[in-house]
Here is the input.
Amino acid sequence: MRYRGLTVFVVATLVTGALAGSAPAKVGGKAVKLGAIYSITGKGAEWGEHSKVATEIAVEEINKAGGIGGVPVEVLIQDTGTEVAPAISLARKLILEDKVLAILGPCFSSEFEALAPLLDRLKTMIVSQCSAKPGISALSQWAFRNTLTSDKQLAPAVEIWQKRNGVKTAAIIYDSADAVSAAEGKAVLPALLKKAGIEVKESLTYQTKDIDFSAQITKVKALNPDGIALGACYQQAANIVREARKQGLKQPFLASACVGSPEFAKLVGKDGEGSIIGSAGWPDDPKPKTAAFLKKFMERSGGKKPNYGGMRSYDNVHVMKMVIETGGVTNEAKDLDVDRDRIRLGWTKVKDFDGITGLTTINAERDGGGKATVLTVKDGQLVKVDY
Amino acid sequence: MIGPYLEDVLIQLGINLILALSLYFPLSAGQLSLGQGGFMAIGAYVASWLTAALGWPWPIAFALAAAAAGVVGALVGLPALRVRGIYLVLMTMAFGEIVRVFFLNFAPMGAAQGFRGMPFVTSLPLVAALAVVVAVLAARTAASRMGRAFAAINRDELAAEVSGVDVTRAKLVSFTVGAVVAGLAGALWAHYVQFIEPEEFGFARSVMPFTFVVVGGIETFWGAIAGAAVLTLLPEWLRFLKEWRLALYGLAMLAVMIVRPQGLIDHRLLEAMRRWLPGHAKEVAR
Amino acid sequence: MLLQQLVNGVMLGAVYALIAIGYTLVFGVLGMLHLAHGEVFMIGAFVGLMVATAYAGNVMLALAAAMVVTGLLGVLIERVAFRPLRGAHHLAPLATTIGAGIALQETARWYFGPEQKGFPSTIAVTLWELGPLRVSSVQVFILAAALVLMAAVSVFLTRTRAGRAVRATAEDPTVAGLLGVNVSAVIVLVFFVASALAGAAGVLVGLAYNSVHPFIGVQMGIKGLVVMLLGGLGNVPGAMVGGLVLGILEVLGVAYFASSYRDAFAFGAVMLMMLLRPEGLLGLRLPRRD
Here is the structure.
């Protein structure tokens, strides 16, 4: 054939091109550098600690399987001490000095809220694994949260709670000193309960550092509602539940993600049986991916089960991998600004990513979308409720 | 050029310095206040309201905020005149907590959710300039008649009164100036972080200037400066220790105080340092 | 409901009292605030937790172990954070105890983890109903334990030689020394007793409220200070009464007002007390220290 050589050449080129296209894009540089700002010490230590361990697990897994685009990934983890000012200075350090491509964290809404307005200048994205205060991702197009805000977590939970227990009247107890819990108690819960046709008999408050809830429970006892809804984190929620049972109340409890920690189930035991919690992840999910993660996490943390901050950190690292590999990121020093923008763009398109916390989607407000996980306490463990 | 991280740390150091000096004023007149966090909160919230909600220019906002803190300072300083020592410590601590709880419930400025919308104003040059101004104020005060009155009251209030010092005026002035300076620190902080919440200004915040001054040296205002510098930079240097950072920070504080209870800088050290200055030898020789 | 609230308040108050006694004892003999006392309480809670978990809910053993360990910790703190500063500025110990407190908090966080832990539920709890009141056996135990400890401290201070030595030192260390009291030994003893009481309070709080984590000392510490003020600095019976008063006021405050302003009321009361009656509710038994 006259054009045999040319044909072979063209075919070979096409085949090679096809093969190259189907493999993850090759990334340049020696390492893919990401940053992380977690609250590893200070009052938020457990969230930061779990996030750190989970991130390290993810990094190891990814690097063992060849890294991101063939290049090992490195996550520089910094500790904010659960303080706002270090969150800012560490983020700037990671972005401007360490030249990371993107930042994982921070966990706390206050740290996130202080950091977000700066991002338009710094042009690097952050993605929080825990922050649940509604609305703050709007502060910058570079501010992302791969969590469900309280309203999304509680909406399905309220329905299930009502259906299971026939709740027509409720009392709300919430932490008026904590931003997220106060938002839940003052705005989110009243709205959702009203929508479900549940009458709120009274809203009672406590302060984060309180340990004694006898006064509030005694008041609730006098009101005798059908159910008790909490705007709280698990430490206080556990005490509230136990105090209620101690004073003879049998009402079912409703709460949101900060309560959905494995520690809650451990602390309340039988007292919390049947509590309904709207959450963002189920650590005991028997799904193979999650179970494998749980095993590794427990090995590394001395037997602790991860809170949802830990679980979501793990997913976030994997989402980063996907976004970098499919977003055309080159990881060359000269492309730093463009790469950061590519990663940001990639995150806006995340849809149905199959992570250990379920299918992850980032919605138009740069918050996590997708179905909330509803959990219940059964035999001292957190169990998923199907709906 | 300074790297961005160092710049941030220096800004935080500058604010801490101003906060430390804010405690130095009442302390030099024998009044230990553990409520500077409260005055800082007032400065932060007032300034933030003026810039974010009303859109006023920041110099006016800062000035008014510091003044507001000063007014409250005078109001607290008045009853504080009757109270001394440990009782004053606890009373000012109570004041700080009351301010915190007030803002925790103050819905127009976000209550527990916090308040944002302030412009970024607190650049390093601004903080450095203001820190220098406050330090110079402290120095000039120490050398002035008012400063000598403070020192006399600090040593022995009764004797000072007997020898003609207007104790009431002096104590009130020192307390009020301390409040004004703390309010300024608050305004600077709010326009650095651009988001404030009541928990920022709790007891821990009031304890900070206290530890700066005590570790740095109570005897002179240089102590406040040294203490703020060391205790702000130390946690950053210790970052390589990762999760051991805070524990070692606590131990370091403990160690410094044991080895040198009067603090890092005292009169003797200042004298020794002065002797090294070129001008001094000439003075002595004269 | 009022009766139940009063009972709630008394339970809470008993715990506050135990911590406040420790503060007031230290202040009595040294004239200084021990700002790491809250952390001593926290360590007591953890020791109690460890022992209760290891020995299947043996609360008495947990209590005893916690008291011994925290007592010794208190002695260590005196040696490290107070004694070297004997002649120094009276504010210096505030800084050392703050530093010690941070170090203790962080060590606890490292060793035990930051998560909140509860006492093992192997401790049987029975609920008794007395008319409109509901009281649990745990609550009765706590109240009894607190009262026993307070009585023991009172007896110690008034009826024993060592106790008299403590009171003499509190009144005037120089004179006490001249009269043959070993002032240094007395101070060590005071720290042991004060810290053991805080450790006991830690175990009781752990039992009652199931909240054991490295940061429980901070809030308890502040409450203890407030109680000490209410009762009068250096006044041990005052600390007991002050504790009960604060406990009851807090509970009633939450029951009849919102909890949000409760702290403001408490601290407002403190400010007023400092102005109007700094010697506390029961008055100072000791000469005022400036």
About this structure: Chain B has 13 helices and two strands. Residues 4-202 of chain B form one domain.
